[in-house]
UniProtKB/TrEMBL annotation:
Keywords, in A-Z order: Membrane, Transmembrane, Transmembrane helix, Transport
Keyword Transmembrane helix attributed: yes
Domain Major facilitator superfamily (MFS) profile as annotated: residue spans: 16-288
Record's bilayer topology term: Multi-pass membrane protein
Name this polypeptide is given: Metabolite transport protein NicT
Organism: Komagataeibacter europaeus
An annotated Gene Ontology molecular function: transmembrane transporter activity
Length: 288
């Protein structure tokens, strides 16, 4: 039995976890690439620091408003279809940011990006919990959350290269190309993901009947603390955890949105130093 479970873990890691890491990676890139374009957008569109900050923050208004409804709907629609819809819509919206010409359109697209990305992270956790046993979930969450610092390591060189090498190609500024070329892969992946991720173990043709039985046994949760949504809302621990997570995210996104434009004014006169310093920070996040 132990051998069967070991082989099953490896198969799930390859068939399920690898795709979740990839789509989480794309989500992280489309969320955080804004910081690299801040100076360029502000100059071309005519934004003050306060207006740029509002545009960065309005994303989270849309996210908060729709996070819970979309997450609850995912259990009925199915996680792969939810992933596909979210990725196509957020990819199109992110790419469309490359064509803004005033702050109103910038605000609208940032808000819509938050709306369309709502429910993504909770759906990932819900989906993985249907495939892995409870005692493995901490490690499972670690691996798909690892895509956050990995995205930070990747996005610096990629965004910097797009900003410099695609500037004025076809008459478009480099930052416009950056949003387009970093947004469209999410659209493509959204169309692919619905065909490669099964909604349930019963739909996975690559599983044997014995392996499906094992996974079904894992899905029977014991000592469940929250049996209903109302139980979650009444639990004080949820609010304490939310407060801690809020503090973590506030610091992280502050760095993502503002650090790329602040570093050159302090230590470097070009963008290469910005990408190097930010990559070092994301590597430290990965290690920690």
């Amino acid at each position: 039995m132990q051998d069967i479970q070991t082989r099953l873990y490896h198969r799930l890691n390859w068939r399920i976890m690898s795709w979740i890491i990839v789509i989480y990676l794309m989500d992280s890139i489309d969320r955080t690439n804004l910081g690299f374009a801040r100076a360029h957008i502000s100059q071309d569109v005519g934004l003050t620091a306060a207006q740029f900050g509002f545009a960065a923050g309005v994303f989270f208004i849309g996210l908060v408003l729709f996070e819970i409804p979309v997450s609850l709907l995912a259990s009925k629609v199915g996680a792969p279809k939810t992933f596909a819809r979210i990725m196509v819509l957020w990819g199109v919206t992110s790419a469309a940011t490359g064509f803004i010409h005033d702050r109103q359109s910038f605000y609208i697209l940032r808000f819509l990006l938050g709306v369309f990305e709502a429910g993504f992270a909770p759906t990932c956790t819900y989906y993985l919990a249907r495939w892995y046993p409870a005692e493995r979930m901490s490690g499972v969450i670690f691996w798909h959350q690892l895509s956050l610092p990995l995205a930070g390591i990747m996005i610096g060189p990629v965004s910097g290269w797009l900003l410099t090498h695609f500037d004025q190609v076809g008459g478009l500024a480099g930052w416009r190309w950056m949003f387009v070329m970093e947004g469209l892969p999410s659209v493509l992946l959204g169309f692919i993901i619905v065909f490669v991720l099964p909604s349930t173990p019963q739909e996975a043709k690559w599983l044997s009947s014995q392996e499906r039985t094992v996974i079904e046994g894992w899905s029977v949760r014991k000592n469940v603390r929250h049996g209903t949504f109302s139980a979650v809302v009444r639990d004080p621990a949820i609010y304490m955890l939310s407060l801690g997570f809020f503090a973590l995210m506030a610091g992280m996104y502050m760095l993502n949105f503002w650090m790329p434009s602040l570093i050159p004014t302090i230590v470097w006169s070009d963008s290469r130093g910005t990408h190097r310093v930010k990559n070092v920070i994301h590597r430290m996040q990965t290690i920690l």
